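Support request from a user on the community tier.

User writes: "When I paste my C-alpha cells into the form, the page sometimes reloads and wipes my input. The last time it worked, I copied everything first. Here is what I submitted, just in case something in the input itself triggers the reload:"
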C-alpha cells in the first residue's frame, strides 16, 4: 500500500468510491470488488476512506481500472 499526500489521497479515495457506487448505475458491493481484486473488504474501505492516506499499489490500481472498464474504454479509440 502506498502513502501519498492527503489531498491526492482524498481525490483518489473519492474517485474509487465513485467508480464503485456509480460506474454501472448501481453499487458494486465492497465484498464483490474485493473478491475480484483478491483483497479484503477492510482494504477496499481503507482505499475509499477520506480520512486516511492509504492507496492501492500500481498493480491493484490497474486491476481496479480493468474491473471498471468497458469494451469502449478498452478499444483505445474512444468509440
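"...and here is what came back when it finally went through:"
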Amino acid at each position: 500500500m502506498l502513502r501519498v499526500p492527503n489531498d491526492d489521497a482524498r481525490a483518489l479515495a473519492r474517485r474509487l468510491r465513485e467508480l464503485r457506487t456509480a460506474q454501472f448505475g448501481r453499487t458494486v458491493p465492497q465484498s464483490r470488488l474485493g473478491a475480484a481484486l483478491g483483497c479484503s473488504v477492510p482494504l477496499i474501505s481503507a482505499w475509499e476512506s477520506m480520512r486516511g492516506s492509504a492507496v492501492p499499489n500500481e498493480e491493484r490500481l490497474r486491476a481496479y481500472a480493468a474491473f471498471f472498464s468497458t469494451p469502449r474504454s478498452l478499444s483505445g479509440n474512444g468509440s
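Agent notes: The reload is a front-end session timeout and is unrelated to the input. The first strand starts at residue 2 and ends at 3. Residues 34 and 43 are 8 Å apart (CA to CA). Escalated to web team.
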